[in-house]
Amino acid sequence: MAAMSGAPLLLANATLTSKLQDDDHRHAEPLKKNRDYEWQVVWRNVFAFVYLHAAALYGFYLMFAGKVRGWTILFGLVFALMAGMGVTAGAHRLWAHRSYKARWPLRLFLALMQTMAFQNHIYEWVRDHRVHHKFTETDADPHNARRGFFFSHIGWLMVRKHKDVFEKGATVDMSDLEKDPIVMFQKKTYMVLMPLLCFVIPAWIPCYFWGENPWYSWYVASITRYTVALHFTWLVNSAAHIWGNRPYDKNIGATDNKAVAICAFGEGWHNYHHVFPWDYKAAELGNYSTNLSTALIDFAAKHGLAYDLKTVSAEMIRQRVNRTGDGSHPWTKDSQEDGHYHPENPVWGWEDTDMTEEEKQFAEIVHRKTE
Ligand code: ST9
Ligand code: ZN
Ligand code: ZN
């Protein structure tokens, strides 16, 4: 393991030019009507979501009526936890933001867990997410929250994307993922692996190991577990772009929302995350109880599977809170402007080649002394 293994890194970017602000997505502005975007409904997806929700309601009935075994419910919870971690610690913090590095056994494990979640393969998930960060709350954002709760939550998966998503999305560098054999293998085999890992195996395990009724197992361990996990994930795109505090930047839509953080294993500290997307914790406030993904990454780092964890200095956070926060940060009242450090904006958090020379210059990685 490299000498720096397990040690968080600090990214200092003193006067980084803002890509995000270039996109002119001031939250207060109402969405301009865009005649180019006539919704083309994808009925296949609409019907799939109608089935999922009807079947999940039946799954809840089975659970509350005591028809399904306790072991099956417990299994569904553990499975959801693992799949969710594949999304948060894997697709999101590792692959989309490169906020830490992972040895191949951890990458394999995270890719398998991400496949269990069926939120599209890692490559597609990351592409949409990088585009979301780069063009937040514009027409190029796949789940633009300025189109309202329903669109950003689920609606965006039921219509064809705006042309800006394709056009501006094409400017996002994905070469790092193309070099990761685990990501590319998952992409190639997704249509076989995903149905097995997300639906067939979780329905089969309760039947085989403790004799659950196969239909009950299907509805509870597969469908209800999947549907609830989707909603918890989607809340990050919808609720955490609408309701909550903006302690770090009041000018952006993303919010810190503790309830979402709990449901989405630490991804609800979304105002912080949009301001400092390279931080492997995706949060400053809260602890492991509101950030289970950080607990997993720290555990992996302790055992040498994760390393080069990136984070943000307390000073940099303080300066940003003072300059652009909405006053809800617990430090705000005590802190004072010293005028020394004025971070303009984050780098997006991964080592992409489409960063400008100026951005690269300021995205200097500084090692933090640990002990
Ligand atoms: C799901 C994803 O639910 C959820 C993501 C949530 C993200 C949350 C993030 C927050 C942090 C993490 C929180 C985790 C919490 C976890 C807690 C768990 C308990 N850039 O897409 P297509 C191009 S998925 C550049 O088909 P259409 C590209 O060339 C749910 N280019 O567009 C592409 O071709 P290819 C299950 C892009 O036709 C081509 O366009 N899945 C980009 O408009 C066509 O792309 C579903 O429901 C881009 N961003 O269709 C299926 N995008 O791929 C969902 C596209 O060959 N998807 N291009 O390179 C679909 O059916 C379709 O995508 C569609 C749009 C109908 C929505
Ligand atoms: Zn992100
Ligand atoms: Zn967001």
TrEMBL record:
GO terms for molecular function: iron ion binding; stearoyl-CoA 9-desaturase activity. Its cofactor is Fe(2+). The keyword Calcium does not apply. One of its GO terms (cellular component) is endoplasmic reticulum membrane. Residues 71-277 form the Fatty acid desaturase domain. It is found in: Membrane. Residues 323-352 are annotated as: Disordered. Its main location: membrane. GO terms for biological process: unsaturated fatty acid biosynthetic process. The chain crosses the membrane at residues 41-64, 71-92, 189-211, 217-236. Keywords: Fatty acid biosynthesis, Fatty acid metabolism, Iron, Lipid biosynthesis, Lipid metabolism, Membrane, Oxidoreductase, Transmembrane, Transmembrane helix. The keyword Transferase does not apply. Residues 331-343 have a biased composition (Basic and acidic residues). InterPro entries: Acyl-CoA_deSatase_haem/ster-bd, Acyl-CoA_DS, FA_desaturase_dom. It is a multi-pass membrane protein. The histidine box domains are involved in binding the catalytic metal ions. Belongs to the fatty acid desaturase type 1 family. This is Fatty acid desaturase domain-containing protein. The lineage of its organism: Eukaryota, Metazoa, Ecdysozoa, Arthropoda, Hexapoda.
